[in-house]
Write a structure and sequence with these properties.
The protein is α/β, with parallel strands linked by helices. It has a domain of 157 residues: TIM Barrel (Alpha-Beta Barrel), CATH 3.20.20. It is 40% helix and 17% strand. Strands 1-2-5-6-7-8-9-10 form an 8-stranded parallel β-barrel, surrounded by 5 helices. A two-stranded antiparallel ribbon has the order 3-4. Helix 9 crosses helix 10.
Amino acid sequence: MKYSFEVLPPLKGTGTGNLFKTIDILKEFDPELINITTHRSEYIYTEQDDGSYAKHRLRRRPGTIAVASAIMQRYGLKVVPHVLCSGFSREDTEYMLLDLQFLGIKDILILRGDKAPDEKRFVPEKGGNSHATELIEQVNLFNAGKFLDGSDIKVPGEPFEYGVACYPEKHDEAPNLEFDLRVLKKKQDLGAKYAVTQLFFDNAKYFQFIEKARQAGITIPIIPGIKPLAKMGQLTIIPKTFHVDIPAALADEARKRKTDEEVAQVGVEWCVEQCRELIRAGVPRLHFYTVSAVPSIKEIMGKL
C-alpha cells in the first residue's frame, strides 16, 4: 500500500526544527510523497496612537516553496506543494510556478482554498482566480509555454502534473453533490491526474462517493484523505471546520473517555479499522492529514 502525508510550513519565525522532527517520524513509513500546504495572507488591524486603525497584510505560514525544497533536498522525498487561488493573484501564481520549475518540483495540488476569516463568502484576490478550474486553466497555459500576457516562455520547462480536491460529503458551498461531481468532472477534463478527498470518518460515504463519481464519468484515482480523532474538542471542531460527520459510534466511544489521551486511543483504533477496510477495497493510496495527529499516525502506521 502507498502512503502520503500532508504537513504545514512552520509558523513565521519558529524555524523548521519541529517540521523536520515530524518528517523524521513519517519518513520511516516510506511515503510516496509529502504534501505541503500553502496559506493565504490575512489582514489584521492595529490601533494607532490617534485611535484609528491601520490595516496590515500578514502571512502566518510563509515558505511553502522553501519548505518543499528543503524536504526534497534533506530527505530525498517527492514533494507536492499546494497552489491556491485564495489570497494570490494570477501574477503571484505565475511566479510561484516559475520558482517551482527552477527547483525541479513537477507535481502540485491545485485548490481554490478557504475564504478569509472575515469573509462571509469566498472573494478572490484582486487579479486572482475565483475557482480551482480557473487556476487549472492558468497552469495549463503555463504548461503550454505561455505567460499570462500571451508572450512565449523562451525556455519552457517540464509541464506540471497536478491533483485536485474532492468532497465525499459535498463541498459546503455546493448546492448538492451532483453539482460537486460536475465540478470534479470538469477538473478531470481539464487535466487533473487524481483527486484527494476531504477527510472523512465513515467509509460508506467514501464508497458511495466513488460509485457516484464513476457513474458521472470520473475515472481518475480518488485518494481517501484520513485524519484520526485526537482530542475531545474535535468532536465539535471537525464537523464545524470541515463540514463532515463524525459517526455516532465513534462519537459515543470518545464521549465515554475522560482525557484527550484516551480519546486519541479511540481515534487510533477507529482509524486503523477504517484504513484496513480501505486497503481491502484496493484504494490507490492512503493520504494522512497530520496536523495535531503525528503521534496517532505513527501508531496507526505501525499497526498497518
